[in-house]
Backbone:
């Protein structure tokens, strides 16, 4: 009889533990005041509450092992068929021929698979500062990983939308126009810039020739009438798209590596170069208005949405926050985020986004040539101070491969990014997962994939490779 009573009491305690109000607990955890030592029950109550809090944390970690999908998802995973690796469908080869042709859309599962990482570890770093909880997931993954049986539905694709293969050299960078779903441009290592449309029928609008060496970066003006490009030939060129003419050339003393139009004042161009500088150029006159000097070559940059901050990465993997006056173009350095790795590697991508589901605010994505992806939260109220939220370590790359944020889909999704790879595939990663961070991949290129870009409608993804092929993929409609 006594055993039954004890069992009943323990079950009641478990039910009470499940129905506990967390706000009530958090209030009880606070010291009652200066006379806390005078209360004989205070120490006992505090130990009890802390013990229950620790148990609650264990339960949450158990849920995390199943990726928050519960017992059914875990059961289906361990019951996967033995021959699941043989279900891998071979890569769809890229076929040279007509430029800008349509490609018939195969089944939704023929080009996209979910991929597991071979090894990963979770590093919970705790609180970095007050009101700022920093969590870092550090994973070691390979670009060519095992294929799982199930596709991440948020990023499934129905196949290739169209292909452009007019370039005979490596396509180093590609972008869609601002607020445009069908205007696409890409620059190549032979110095050419190609502007095309992906709407029916896909076609090349203009081919801009003038650079004598690699096009390292370019940017559309806000109205998509102009393109500003940077090159290894030490020049910045301004192009009028409708006429296909270069209307201005700005000569430098070193290779021009990255370029952006100011998001608010399109009369300003921000350019990073191999002379360790960011220069602010007047678009109308071509004159250099201001400059800031850094420790190493500035290899990538991006503005925030206000135009008051520039985030730039250098050849040693450091990321700088630079303040910018939108009226005068004056620059002032604010913060520097050092690369903690012993082996320094150039930053290939710096991309800003105004909101993130993980950070609940503005965030920054940084990608280095050695395969490191870093995801930072941005404190605009502290002059763009960066706090590392999570990171991912991929296989080192030979090419300067770029990465990009993926569209925000729903409150239940993670933080997805898309990146090229040396094994000719396009990979999708969820940076919030401690395991199985690589969730999907696209197969179709025949050489290393260097650039990736989403259109404004976020239904098309463009990718480019070292052979000069550009593939536009069509994402499946969300159910």
Residues:
């Amino acid at each position: 009889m006594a055993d039954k009573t004890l069992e009943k009491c323990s079950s009641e305690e478990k039910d009470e533990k499940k129905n506990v109000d967390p706000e009530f607990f958090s209030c009880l955890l606070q010291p009652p005041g200066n006379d806390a030592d005078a209360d004989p029950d205070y120490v006992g109550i505090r130990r009890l509450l802390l013990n229950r809090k620790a148990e609650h944390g264990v339960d949450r970690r158990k849920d995390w092992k199943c990726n928050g999908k519960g017992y059914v998802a875990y059961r289906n995973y361990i019951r996967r068929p033995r021959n699941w690796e043989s279900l891998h469908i071979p890569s769809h080869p890229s076929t040279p021929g007509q430029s800008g042709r349509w490609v018939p859309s195969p089944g939704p599962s023929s080009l996209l698979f979910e991929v597991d990482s071979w090894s990963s570890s979770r590093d919970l770093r705790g609180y970095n500062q007050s009101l700022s909880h920093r969590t870092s997931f550090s994973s070691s993954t390979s670009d060519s990983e095992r294929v799982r049986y199930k596709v991440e539905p948020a990023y499934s694709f129905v196949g290739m939308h169209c292909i452009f293969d007019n370039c005979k050299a490596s396509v180093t960078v590609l972008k869609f126009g601002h607020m445009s779903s069908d205007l696409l441009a890409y620059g190549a290592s032979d110095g050419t810039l190609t502007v095309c449309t992906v709407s029916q029928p896909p076609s090349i609008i203009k081919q801009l020739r003038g650079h004598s060496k690699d096009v390292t970066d370019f940017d559309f003006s806000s109205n998509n009438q102009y393109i500003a490009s940077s090159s290894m030939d030490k020049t910045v060129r301004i192009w009028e798209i409708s006429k296909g003419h270069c209307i201005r050339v700005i000569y430098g003393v070193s290779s021009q590596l990255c370029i952006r139009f100011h998001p608010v004042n399109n009369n300003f161009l921000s350019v990073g170069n191999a002379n360790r500088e960011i220069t602010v150029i007047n678009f109308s006159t071509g004159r250099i208005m201001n400059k800031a000097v850094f420790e190493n070559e500035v290899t990538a940059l991006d503005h925030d949405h206000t135009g008051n901050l520039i985030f730039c990465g250098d050849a040693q993997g450091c990321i700088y926050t630079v303040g910018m006056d939108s009226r005068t173009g004056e620059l002032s350095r604010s913060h520097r985020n050092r690369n903690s790795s012993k082996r320094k590697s150039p930053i290939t991508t710096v991309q800003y986004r105004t909101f993130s589901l993980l950070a609940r605010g503005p965030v920054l994505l940084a990608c280095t040539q050695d395969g490191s992806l870093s995801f930072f939260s941005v404190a605009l109220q502290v002059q763009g101070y960066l706090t590392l939220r999570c990171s991912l370590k991929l296989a080192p790359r030979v090419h300067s491969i770029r990465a990009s944020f993926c569209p925000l889909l729903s409150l239940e999704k993670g933080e997805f990014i898309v990146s090229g790879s040396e094994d000719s595939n396009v990979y999708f990663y969820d940076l919030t997962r401690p395991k199985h961070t690589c969730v999907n991949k696209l197969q179709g290129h025949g050489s290393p994939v260097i650039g990736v870009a989403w259109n404004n409608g976020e239904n098309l993804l463009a990718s480019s490779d070292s052979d000069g092929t550009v593939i536009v993929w069509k994402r499946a409609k969300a159910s």
Observations:
- The chain has a mean pLDDT of 76.
